[in-house]
Design goal:
The complex is a heterodimer of chains A (130) and B (479).
Chain A lengths: L7 H16 L21 H7 L6 H18 L32 H4 L6 E2 L2 E2 L7
Antiparallel strand pairs in A: 1-2
Chain B lengths: L7 H9 L5 H19 L2 E3 L2 H10 L10 E5 L26 H8 L3 E6 L33 H8 L6 E5 L5 H7 L2 E4 L19 E6 L2 H11 L29 E5 L9 H16 L3 E5 L7 H16 L18 H12 L2 H13 L5 H22 L5 E5 L15 H5 L6 H6 L3 E8 L5 E7 L5 H13 L11
Parallel strand pairs in B: 2-3, 2-4, 7-8, 7-9
Antiparallel strand pairs in B: 1-3, 4-6, 5-6, 5-10, 9-11, 10-11
Helix pairs in contact in B: 2-3, 5-6, 7-15, 9-11, 9-12
The chains are: A mainly alpha (130), B alpha/beta (479).
Chain lengths: 130, 479
């Protein structure tokens, strides 16, 4: 059930892509890095948190930087495992599509029952256009 | 004897014979809860009135008619809270039933209590709950394991007959081992995940925590089967597990993976597992040494893939459609950031950041795709091991329950608690944990049996035979 992703040709193209990225890593999140996985990157926690729509306190930033660097160092061990010819796998999923027939779903009332702010069967959010 | 001390199988027989009524079970459970829940804190929510009302209406002719079951607080059950032990879901009431919940309801079960967990199932000790820690009924100064720690403590502490949990990296089996009950993580695709709040969708699986293997099989039979709302569920016909217990392990080839027996592992755990393997051999099974060579990489692979999936899954908690919303946001970005920063606890934030990082431009190949490849190797390890044996026998946890607070400041050390359970989630296999002994200080030790994919029947037969030849499951915790 696990599908191999891509053909041989695609894999070759992909490995070129990997190589390009290995040499042209954007220096956005790491203040130091090296090729491959063998050195421990220094993570810019505040920047990554911003991408995830989290704002951290200075204390959290310091603490997470230390803890996540230690965790990333543990993950570096994967770099030692040869995976050159190993096909990338995707999680098991069956190509099962259900029949395209209408079936009951949540009512508007039920779907809105947990909305923090609403009006006229619509969810209210702060203004997004000036 | 209080009905709270009986097994699900026994209560089912007595209910259908009309010897007892569902309300008697609920009342006995509420008495136990009144006496010991203050110490254990297994639950995040208990609605006594609703449970008693449901018990009155219970139909004992149904397969689970009138049996009270506790639900981990990440399973949607119509009208009930579903907090995932997080502040971000304060006040949320489920507008629908998860498929697993609906199936139990259809089989006549009633629901008593929402059980505590590590926030969004992220943790191995239930200390990451925003709603307070759960204590181990065998020693309240120790953790119950996690993330389904509330479910395990409730079942072991006789505060629930059975409970549902979810297992992404060991979250059913590890707390079951540490609390001395039976925890089953079915094969990926066996039980629908519809209505389970998603943590890592390619790894999550719902399963039962029970006192016995027979109870586990009864619940699995009720829960398993294809669901059009979860297209990763398997299409094979429903079956009744452990319908005819053989009580025998004769001829079974039991594999002992050498990577799971490491020098320096906890001596009492090792002794209990060795003694369990000798029991299998004495009773006609053959022991085979096998190798799962990529085991040492499993933790790294898991914490890349699980956090990557979690960072995407938890993007939905943004304060817009449900759950907590920050007060007086000045704009949409402020609403997102403050809602999430105020609503999520430290472990959830840590994992979202890690997951966002491993998926960020320039790093997906080095981390995420590399981990997917090694995941493939781990899966091949299991496939090759199962050409030589029928089941694998391992410890569930490298050590018994550790003291509260010991690892809260050291996330990596906490992650290592899942070293023996994580690989089966990555490979998709089913596995069960059951009690196989106690330490000198009276802490339970768990034995893990791992089956080939969709090999639950053989796994349950072997577990049942072992369990019934011992009396570990009958022991009562002191709290």
């Amino acid at each position: 059930m696990w599908r191999e992703k891509g053909t041989e040709r695609k894999k070759k193209v992909q490995s070129l892509y990997d190589l390009r990225h290995a040499f042209f890593l954007p220096n956005r999140f790491l203040s130091s890095y090296s090729l491959g996985l063998m050195s421990v990157p220094k993570l810019n926690v505040a920047d990554v948190a911003g991408l995830a729509r989290l704002s951290l306190t200075p204390d959290e930033t310091t603490k997470f930087t230390a803890q996540l660097s230690q965790i990333l160092a543990h993950m570096e061990t994967l770099g030692q495992i040869p995976t050159g010819d190993v096909p990338e796998v995707v999680p098991p999923a069956q190509p099962v599509l259900r029949k395209d027939v209408p079936c009951p779903s949540l009512t508007v009332k039920a779907a809105l029952s947990n909305a923090p702010a609403q009006s006229n069967d619509l969810i209210l959010v702060p203004k997004i256009v000036e | 004897m209080s009905l709270a001390h009986e097994t699900l199988a026994s209560l089912r027989r007595r209910l259908s014979a009309k010897e007892i009524h569902s309300r008697d079970i609920v009342k006995d459970l509420l008495t136990e809860i009144g006496a010991r829940e203050k110490t254990v804190h297994a639950f995040t929510h208990i609605d006594e009135k609703a449970a008693l009302a449901a018990a009155e209406k219970a139909d004992s002719s149904l397969p689970l008619g009138g049996i009270p079951i506790a639900l981990k607080d990440n399973l949607n059950a119509l009208g009930d809270p579903c907090t995932c032990s997080s502040k971000i879901l304060e006040g949320y009431r489920a507008p629908y039933d998860a498929t697993a919940v609906a199936r139990l309801r259809r089989a006549g079960a009633i629901f008593l209590g929402r059980t505590n967990m590590d926030e969004f199932a992220m943790g191995s000790s239930t200390e990451n709950s925003a709603l307070g820690v759960t204590r181990n009924p065998w020693d309240p100064t120790r953790i119950p394991g996690g993330s389904s720690g509330g479910s395990a403590a409730a079942v072991a502490g006789r505060l629930a007959i059975a409970a549902l949990g979810s297992d992404t990296g060991g979250s059913i089996r590890q707390p079951a081992a540490l609390c001395g009950c039976v925890g089953l993580k079915p094969t990926y695709g066996r039980i629908s995940r519809y209505g389970l709040v998603a943590f890592a969708s390619s790894l999550d699986q719902i399963g039962p925590l029970t006192r016995t293997v027979e109870d586990s099989a009864i619940l699995l039979s009720a829960l398993a089967g294809h669901d059009p709302r979860d297209n990763t569920t398997d299409l094979r016909k429903p079956e009744t597990f452990l319908a005819k217990p053989t009580g025998s392990v004769k001829g079974l080839r039991v594999g002992l993976p050498k990577e799971y027996f490491l020098p320096g592992m906890n001596a009492e755990t090792e002794a209990a597992i060795r003694s369990a393997s000798q029991w299998f051999e004495k009773n006609g099974a053959t022991l085979v040494e096998v190798s799962l060579p990529h085991t040492p990489s499993a933790i790294a692979v898991y914490y890349i893939l699980a956090t990557a999936e979690a960072s995407a899954n938890l993007a939905r908690f943004d304060g817009v459609r449900y759950g907590r919303r920050a007060l007086d946001p000045k704009d949409l970005m402020d609403l997102y950031q403050r809602t999430r920063s105020e609503g999520f606890g430290p472990e959830v934030k840590r994992r979202i950041i890690l997951g966002t990082f491993v998926l960020s431009q320039g790093y997906t190949d080095a981390y995420y795709r590399k981990a997917q490849k090694v995941r493939g190797l781990l899966r091949q390890d299991f496939e090759s091991a199962f050409t030589k044996c029928d089941l694998l026998l391992t410890p569930t946890s490298p050590e018994p329950a550790f003291p509260l607070g010991e690892r809260t400041q050291d996330p990596l050390k906490m992650y290592l608690a899942d070293v023996f359970t994580i690989s089966t989630n990555l490979a998709g296999n089913g596995a069960i944990s059951l009690p196989c002994g106690f330490t000198k200080s009276n802490l339970p030790i768990g034995l893990q049996l791992i089956g080939p994919r969709f090999g639950e029947e053989k796994m349950l037969q072997a577990a049942h035979a072992y369990e019934q030849a011992h009396d570990f499951w009958k022991r009562m915790p002191p709290v």
